[in-house]
Specification:
138 residues; alpha+beta; binds zinc ion; 20% strand; 31% helix; 4 helices
């Protein structure tokens, strides 16, 4: 993604453009997999942990990235599709976790099946599939 595109992207989400936001956004857009905050810290050493964490939270609130539920205790973040904004996140896509390399991918074109259970109000649903990713099963 071009620098000017990144700037416009932030503006579209009503965010002030800062160097840290541009760098974090660039990193998210350049990676095929979901990112952990550890990866952010390792790749963007010019910023302290607090600044990166704050930027991450700003992006979650703005509907740019979402936290991926994971039982490993390591929080991972994936890029949202264009339907998300500061009002709400709108996605029900499936996530895939690779047993071999440990990468987690968003699968935006695959949706969690809608389930109706009488007497229950379902607000959110998550599905993590696991197995071998494309890179690991070749
Ligand atoms: Zn979202
Ligand atoms: Zn893999
Ligand atoms: Zn996702």
């Amino acid at each position: 993604m071009q620098f000017s595109e990144l700037k416009n992207f932030l503006k579209q989400h009503k965010l002030r453009v800062t160097d840290c936001r541009l760098d974090v956004l660039q990193l998210f857009k350049s990676k095929k997999h979901a990112l952990t905050s550890r990866v952010l810290e390792d790749e963007l050493t010019g910023y302290d942990r607090v600044t990166l964490f704050r930027t991450l939270n700003t992006f979650i609130e703005a509907g740019i990235v979402h936290k991926i539920p994971d039982d490993s205790g390591v929080a991972r973040y994936g890029v949202c599709d264009s339907k998300c904004d500061a009002e709400a996140h709108h996605h029900d896509h499936v996530h895939f976790k690779c047993d071999e390399c440990g990468n987690v991918d968003c699968l935006p074109t695959h949706h969690v099946p809608r389930i109706e259970i009488p007497g229950y109000i379902i607000k959110d649903s998550n599905m993590i599939l696991n197995g071998l990713c494309r890179a690991c099963n070749g």
